[in-house]
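thread: overnight batch results

M.L. [08:02]
morning all. the overnight job finished for the chain we discussed friday. pasting input first so we're all looking at the same thing
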Amino acid sequence: MNELTAEWMKVQDKDLLIDEIMDRYGQEILQLAYSYVHNKAIAEDLTQDIFIKCYKNLHTYSGKATFRTWLWRIAINHCKDFLRSWYNKNIVPTTDYFPKHISEKEMIEEVVIQQEEDHELISAIMRLPTKYKEVIYLFYYEELMIKDIASITRTGTNTVKTRLRRAKSLLKEMLEE
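M.L. [08:03]
and the structure it wrote out:
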């Protein structure tokens, strides 16, 4: 099954369908949620909520956009709603712990330098305003085409191009400081 279609969703068992959707898009949605909240546990919770919304609203998918675009729209809206929520503004989460594994073949110095550079870049991306962070994430990390990003963000392709250009400029300024 290459792309989920509206017809396929109406015919097939919803439980089987949601399993397929979660297998296919679960990691992408988790990464997207994490890019908004910067906390692994909260991102996992949001991902579950997103798939519940997807399950409950499968009947509304009309096939006008690709299924992936439809699901991403749900995910982005849900993450933005969470960021505006009372819970997010008033509850302080614990910090995430990500153990770093170093293979025997790699030099420790190189790994440390690369991790520091990666952390600096990710930190700079996360400090960008949401509209710039979204397009950077979707374009570079998810490797979506500009027209798909425009559809997901409900903006024009020229707006997406402008935001990408402005985001890169802001990142360059942040990293040069």
